[in-house]
Amino acid sequence: MLSIKQELLDAPPPPPAATPLPPITHRISLSGYRNIHAKSFLKTMTMDLCVRRVVLSLLENRRALWIRVHKSPKADWEVLGVEVFERTGKAVSVKQLQRIFLTARDWLRRNLQLYIIQRKMDKLTLDAELAKWELYPHFIYYRQYLGQFEAHLRGEEWTGELYDDDIICDGIMQVEVSTRVFNNPAQDEVPIVENYEGYGGSVASMAEAGGCEHAQMDTSRGYEQSRQQKAAIGGYEQPQMATPRGYEQQRMQREATGGCEQPQVAAAFSSNFASASTSRSRKRPHSSIKQEDSVSYTKITEDLLQKKPHKHRFIRQALFKTIMALDDDEVEYTELADLFGDIAEQSNVVRRLRLQRQQQRGRGEQRQVEERH
C-alpha cells in the first residue's frame, strides 16, 4: 500500500458540461436532403450557435470525417447534414458543415499557441480559459486529439495523455523554462513555432490573422505575475517553485536588502494547491526550519534548474513527490530506502497504467486504419 498522500493527488477538474443534443423532431430522407435547393441553405447557418453546437457534437463519433475533411466521402457529410436537419429543423450544406468544423479547429489551434507560448499558461489555467469559449464543451474531443501538438508547444515529451499522472499540478511547483538562452536577457522576441501540423510563424501574427475577439482578451492573473517578474529581473524568466507560507518573511527580508525576490507561492486557482493548503500536515509550524537553511535549499534548487533547463520537468516531478512523501503524517520515514521505495512503487504503477493505455490506443488506431482500407 502506498504511503504517499492520496488526498493531494486530485484529478484534473471536470470539463464544462455540454448542452444536450436536441431530440429529433423533424424527418427528412437522404434523397430529400440532396434535393434541397442551394438557395435554401442560408449563409447565416455557420454563425448559428445552436447549429454549431449540434454539428461539433455529432462529429465527435465521426472521426473519419474530420481527420481528412476535404478527402472524406461527400455522402458521409450528407448523412451528417440529414441528422443536423432532423435535430434543428435547419438545412446546412456540406460546405457549411465543413466550414463550421474548420473554423472551430483553427480557433483552437491558434489559441493553444497563443496561451501556451505567449501567455505561459499552465494546464489548469489553460483549461479555465478555454472553458470560456461557448463551443469548447462540444469540442473537447479535438483538444484531446491535439494532445501531441500541445505537448510540442510546451516542449514536453508526449505521453499519450493531456494530464501527466506523475506531475499532479503545474501550479504547486511552477517552473517556467524559457526557450531563450539564460545568459542573454536582451533577447525578447516572440518565439517562433516550428511548422507543426501545418502551422508556423509567430504567435502574434496568428492572433492578428485570426481576428478572434477571444484571442485578444486580457492576460490572466498568472501571466501578469510572470510578466511583472520578467520585467523586474531584466527580461528573462527564472525557474520558479512553490515556497511554504512560512517563508513570506524571508521574501520580504530579501526585498529589503535588494536581493532577488523569493519565488512566489503557487497561484490560488490551482485546485491541488487549495487541497494542499487545507491539508492537516500543511498547518504544522515551520519554526524548526532555520532561515539560512531555507535560503540555501532554494538557491541549490534554482542553480540546478538553471544548469539543466532541459530536465526541468523531471526535476519538478522528483521534488514534488519527495516533498509530498516527507510531508505525510501517516508514516515517519527514517531510512532513505523506504522513502524512495514507496516513490518507486507509485511510479511503477503509473508507468504500467500508461503503457496499457498506449497499447489500447495503438490497437484502436490500427483497427481504424484497417477499416478504412
From TrEMBL:
Coiled-coil annotated spans: none
Chain residue ranges for the region called Disordered: 241-260, 272-293
Entry GO terms, CC: nucleus
InterPro entries listed in its UniProt record: LIN-8
UniProt cross-references to Pfam families, sorted A to Z: Lin-8 (PF03353)
Database matches in PANTHER family: ARID DOMAIN-CONTAINING PROTEIN-RELATED, LIN-8 DOMAIN CONTAINING-RELATED
Protein name in UniProt: LIn-8 Domain containing
Organism the protein comes from: Caenorhabditis elegans
